[in-house]
Recover the amino acids of this structure.
C-alpha cells in the first residue's frame, strides 16, 4: 500500500486518538474536513487550542472555567447558603441541565479510594471545610451528590462525619427508583435503598 | 443552565460538527482533550491545519497528495501501462490496501449523473483521454473500477465507448458474489450478474 498524503495520514492518526473514534471513523472525519472550507477547519483547530489555553479551575468551587471565579460562583443571583458537593466538573453540567439547583457547587475532583491510593487529602475536602469555616458564603446546607458506588458512599460518610463539627445541615440527593422505569427492571440494591429511604406520601 | 467555560462550549460545538459525532460524544472528546497534555492537543490542531494546507490534487491522476505528482504517479517501480479508473480518491486507498494492483490510477472525481446535473465534462474524463492520447505513459490497459450502481454503470459504458477510438484494452473489475458469503443472502441483481459473467473453471 502506498500513501499519497502524509498530511492526511497524520490527521487520521491524530483523530483516531479521540475517545470512541476508530481508524475508520477518523478517516471519515479527515475526508469530511478536507471537503470543508479552510475557515471551518481553522475554527475547529482554534477551538481545540483555546480549550487548552483558556480553561482553568475555579479557585472557589473547582469546576472548569475561562475566568476565575467561575460564572456560577460570581453570579450574585445564585443562592450562596447552599453548596452541592460533586465528584467531577462534568457533574456540574449534568446538574445545571436540570435547572433545579440554584446554589453553588464544590467539585472534589475525585473520591476517596484506598485501592487507587486516593486519600482524603488528595481530593478537595480541605477546601470545602475552609469555605464553610471562613463564613464568607454563610453556608447553611451542604448537599452531597456523589455517585452511589462504594467509593462515593464512603466519601459521603467521611465528609458527613467531618461536617458534624460545623454548624451546617448535611443532606444528600435521593437515591431510589428512577422515573419512567418498571420495578421489574430495578436491581435489588436500588430497591432496598428505595424502601429504606421511603418518605410519607 | 449556566455555562462556566465558553472555550469548552465552543470546542464541543466544533467537534459536534464532525460526521458521526453527536453532542454527547463531542463532550466526551472535549473532556478527554482537556485532560491531555498541551502538546498532544496542539499536535491534533496542527494536523488539522496542515491537512488543509498541504493536501492538493495530483495533476496526473487527480488523487489527493502532499506533493505533485503524487507518490504513486512518481513511483518508477509502478507499472505505467495500466490505469485503474475510480470515482473518488478514497477508492485509491481502498484498492491500495489490497496490494493487488501495481499500476497507476485515474480519479474521475464523480460519475455522470443527469439527476444531479453532472455531465461528462464535470468529471475528469477529458484528462483521462489526454493521458492516453499523449502517449507519455504508454497506456495499454484501462481498468474501470466504478461502483456498480446506475451512475457507475452508465459512466463505465460512456468511457468504454469513447475509448473505442484509442488503441487500449478496456477491462472492468469483476462484479459477482462476494467471498465468504452464502448464495442465500445474495440479492438477485448480483446473482444475475454472477451468472452472466461466469468464467471457465
Amino acid at each position: 500500500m502506498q500513501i499519497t498524503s502524509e498530511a492526511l495520514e497524520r490527521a487520521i492518526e491524530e483523530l483516531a486518538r479521540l475517545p470512541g473514534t476508530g481508524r475508520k471513523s477518523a478517516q471519515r472525519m479527515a475526508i469530511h474536513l478536507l471537503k470543508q472550507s479552510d475557515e471551518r477547519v481553522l475554527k475547529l483547530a482554534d477551538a481545540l487550542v483555546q480549550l487548552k489555553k483558556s480553561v482553568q479551575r475555579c479557585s472557589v468551587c473547582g469546576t472548569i472555567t475561562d475566568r476565575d471565579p467561575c460564572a456560577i460562583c460570581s453570579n450574585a443571583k445564585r443562592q450562596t447558603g447552599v453548596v452541592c458537593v460533586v465528584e467531577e466538573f462534568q457533574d456540574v453540567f449534568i446538574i445545571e441541565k436540570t435547572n433545579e439547583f440554584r446554589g453553588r457547587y464544590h467539585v472534589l475532583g475525585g473520591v476517596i479510594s484506598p485501592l487507587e491510593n486516593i486519600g482524603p487529602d488528595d481530593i478537595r475536602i480541605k477546601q470545602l471545610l475552609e469555605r464553610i469555616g471562613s463564613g464568607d458564603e454563610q453556608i447553611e446546607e451542604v448537599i452531597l451528590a456523589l455517585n452511589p458506588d462504594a467509593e462515593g458512599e464512603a466519601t459521603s460518610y467521611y465528609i458527613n462525619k467531618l461536617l458534624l463539627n460545623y454548624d451546617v445541615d448535611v443532606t444528600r440527593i435521593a437515591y431510589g427508583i428512577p422515573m419512567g422505569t418498571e420495578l421489574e427492571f430495578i436491581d435489588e440494591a436500588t430497591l432496598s435503598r428505595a424502601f429504606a429511604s421511603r418518605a410519607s406520601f
User: Anything to note?
Assistant: Residues 38-54 of chain B form the longest helix (17 residues). Chain B has a mean pLDDT of 92.
